[in-house]
């Protein structure tokens, strides 16, 4: 084992610094993971550009690696062994609140970096916290604090593919748990990035009978992959009238569920979702990309009796199901793991997400 740890530290807007940290001692109830893969997602792209609110941060919240060092309490609590391949959720758990007791750690105040300056969330927490500076995946090692929530990666699942667990867990959580997609459901998925494509797989596996995916002119390869993963209809919204095509595909009825997985589309995707939902009692899943929504059509939403759900991460169960889904090799998901970068190229990697036309799932491999 090396005695220094290399990590990329975000020191300002779109600015990383490769720094060396001491190899930490591991407390009895904590552990150290050798990072194999740190996935980059749209949230990273957005956060990367922002001003720091406090001390610098080691980003990277979609991490897969090997349990290399652990205290005896940690091993006892998790049932893991040294050498196991693991997926630590970026959420941590206080273990005491109503949310933690129901397996919904993501709602725990202890991991809420937005409202709690002491909140611990891997990839979001500043290096001057009380645990260890190494709380992000853009690093050779990541420190797993006492309240880390850790899943074992199934045997035979390649680490890069296992890195898709986070968008896949979100797919299961949002489409299946939040919006009740199941047998014979018709679904509109807007945005064919890793998040939208993971929703396609979750919906297909659950039995959806009509899966419609939208994208723009730059998404032609992504829309092709959507079809290969099980989408019935794909629409380039810059070339065709999406509402017309959705109604045509659903015999004029509209869809049961509309999921927004777009980035930078403004209010357009939500407005299309509202229009595309069936006459009564559809479900709309939204993301909070913009702070305000001028002229929100609240009249139409209530007349159509639409239920609005907020995209808010994943539960413990969704992660376990996502790992099983990936290990089943039932869908050609290796088509979405398109790009891998060394730690020194983290800046290029972050910019590749949402940049390069063929980039879908981008991984940083700190030991490459
Ligand atoms: Zn993410
Ligand atoms: Zn809690």
Automatic annotation (TrEMBL):
Domain (Alcohol dehydrogenase-like C-terminal) ranges: 196-326
Domain Alcohol dehydrogenase-like N-terminal: 29-155
Molecular function GO labels: alcohol dehydrogenase (NAD+) activity
Assigned EC number: 1.1.1.1
Keywords: Oxidoreductase
InterPro entries: ADH-like_C, ADH-like_N, GroES-like_sf, NAD(P)-bd_dom_sf, Zn_alcohol_dh
Protein name: Putative alcohol dehydrogenase adh
Native source organism of the sequence: Paraburkholderia fynbosensis
High-level lineage: Bacteria, Pseudomonadati, Pseudomonadota, Betaproteobacteria, Burkholderiales
């Amino acid at each position: 084992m090396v005695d220094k740890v290399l990590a990329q530290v975000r020191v300002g807007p779109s600015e990383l610094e490769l720094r060396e940290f001491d190899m930490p001692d591991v407390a009895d109830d904590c552990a150290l993971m050798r990072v194999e893969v740190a996935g980059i997602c749209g949230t990273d792209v957005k956060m990367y550009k922002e001003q720091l609110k406090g001390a610098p941060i080691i980003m990277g919240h979609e991490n897969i690696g090997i349990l290399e060092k652990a205290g005896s309490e940690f091993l006892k609590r998790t049932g893991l062994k040294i050498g196991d391949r693991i997926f630590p959720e970026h959420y941590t758990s206080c273990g005491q609140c109503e949310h933690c007791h129901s397996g919904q750690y993501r709602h725990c105040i202890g991991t809420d970096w937005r409202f709690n300056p002491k909140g611990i969330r891997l990839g979001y927490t500043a290096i001057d916290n009380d645990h260890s500076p190494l709380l992000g995946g853009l690093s050779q090692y990541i420190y797993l604090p006492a309240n880390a929530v850790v899943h074992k990666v199934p045997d035979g699942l390649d680490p890069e593919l296992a890195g898709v667990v986070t968008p896949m867990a979100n797919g299961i959580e949002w489409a299946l748990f939040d919006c009740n997609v199941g047998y014979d459901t018709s679904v509109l998925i807007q945005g064919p990035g890793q998040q939208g494509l993971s929703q396609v797989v979750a919906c297909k596996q659950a039995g959806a009978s009509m899966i419609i995916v939208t994208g723009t002119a730059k998404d032609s390869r992504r829309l092709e992959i959507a079809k290969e993963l099980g989408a019935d209809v794909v629409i380039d919204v810059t070339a065709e009238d999406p509402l017309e095509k959705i109604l045509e595909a659903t015999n004029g009825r509209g869809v049961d569920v509309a999921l927004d997985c777009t980035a930078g589309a403004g209010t357009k995707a939500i407005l299309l979702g509202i229009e595309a939902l069936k006459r009564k009692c559809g479900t709309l899943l939204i993301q909070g990309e913009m702070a305000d929504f001028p002229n929100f059509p609240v009249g139409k939403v209530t007349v159509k009796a639409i239920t609005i759900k907020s995209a808010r991460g994943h539960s413990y169960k969704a992660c376990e199901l996502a790992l099983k889904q990936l290990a089943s090799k039932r869908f050609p998901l290796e088509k979405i793991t398109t790009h891998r970068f060394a730690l020194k190229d983290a800046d290029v990697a972050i910019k590749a997400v949402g940049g390069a036309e063929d980039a879908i799932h981008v991984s940083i491999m700190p030991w490459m």
